[in-house]
Amino acid sequence: MRAHERLLHYVSFGTQSNHESKTIPSTESQKVLGAALVVEMKALGIEDAFMDDKGYVYGTIPATPGKENKPVIGLIAHMDTAEDASGDNIQAKIVEYQGGDILLNEEKNILMTEKEYPSLKKYVGQHLIVTDGTTLLGADDKAGIAEIMTMAEELINNPSIEHGKIRIGFTPDEEVGRGANYFDVEGFGADFAYTVDGGELGELEYENFNAGSAKVVVHGLSIHTGSAKDAMLNASLLAMEYHNMLPVEQNPRYTQGYEGFFHLDSIKGRVEEAELHYIIRDHDAAKYDQKKQVMQDIADYLNKKYGEGTFELTIEESYRNMKEKIEPHMHLIDNARKAFAQCGVEAQTVPIRGGTDGARLSYMGLPCPNLSTGGHNFHGRFEYIPVESMDKMTETLVNIVKIYAE
């Protein structure tokens, strides 16, 4: 079975995670896919495949005879999809792309245009998996799962391909920043690993944002509008005042590359109380810490202006830049670059403007850079992935394990 065929099956499982949920995993639907993956892994011959009580799926491909002393490689992808767009009832299809715009949904006249998505120009003559324009696709990261599983099938069915021991892990809740929370690094037993969770074919990433989330709760005072003069404190307006004090240019819309940002992810409020939810990002640790201090300074200033306790700021760490943990193990990058080249792909080392499970796993003692899946436009209704990129990515994974068996 080819990787894209697996992806088309996996996206039939709705596995959207939920940042507000307190359960582990955050949605039960992720365990439904996890259970199906265990069944599939066992059918392939991965005899020890299992899902733990927290929804993590693990399995082992034993080393080929004579390669037991080679490094143990981990390959990891996540099962959940993002909350940014619906992940239920996904209507995926394959289109042979001949250039120009793609009509995703005739009934609703939804087009993916070449003007808005110029990356399409690279794939004329290829086969693109797209949606009907009403949901995301879920290639982030079910494409990674599909590519790992297809690699596993090839290795198991072709014993002439020599490799060391390979550990496979599929995680829940990556999209809500909890994918590594309960990952059993010690039990996984890998010397190092790769997450397969990136974008365009050839992306190779070992630098990511330092990341945190911030919640600002604003306490107001409601009073009848007829007698509100010098008395009402409208929490919604105060929330707007807080946001307007953040640096305008440090907004995702105006940043790229290594530039960090404050992102207002959600806002809700009435007169009595309002909430602002942010994510904070920067590749540079010092600048990241400065951003957190800016948020605290604004809260302190406004509390002096409106009264202590009016603004409550809570900042939680999500992950740190994995660069310092990968640099002592640059063979991971060099060998991945070589593996891409062996199948005719030029690797592009780029900073992740986001994060992966690998960032936290690297700080948990498992060096874990990130590899591409081949997908584009993740987290949105115009997500797509070329079938040919998935085939190349599967080939790259096979090449990696062969290199480490040399």
Low-confidence region ranges = none
Q: What oligomeric state is this?
A: single chain
Cα-based radius of gyration, to the nearest Å: 23 Å
Q: Which CATH first-tier class of the largest domain would you pick?
A: Alpha Beta
Task: Report what the structure shows.
- The chain is an alpha+beta fold and 406 residues long.
- It has helices at 3-10, 29-44, 139-157, 185-188, 235-244, 285-306, 323-326, 331-342, 357-363, 387-403, and strands at 50-51, 57-61, 73-78, 93-96, 102-105, 110-112, 127-130, 166-171, 192-198, 203-205, 210-219, 261-269, 273-282, 311-319, 348-349, 370-372, 385-386.
- Strand 12 (261-269) and strand 13 (273-282) form a beta hairpin.
- The model has no long low-confidence stretch (mean pLDDT 96).
- The chain starts with a helix and ends with a helix.
- It has two domains: 3-208 and 321-403, Zn peptidases (Aminopeptidase, 3-Layer(aba) Sandwich); 210-319, 2-Layer Sandwich (Alpha-Beta Plaits), CATH 3.30.70.
- The protein is 29% helix and 22% strand.
- Helix 1 (3-10) packs across helix 3 (139-157).
- The strands form four sheets. The chain has an eight-stranded mixed beta sheet, with helices on one face. It has a four-stranded antiparallel beta sheet with strand order 12-13-11-14.
- It is built from ten helices and 17 strands.
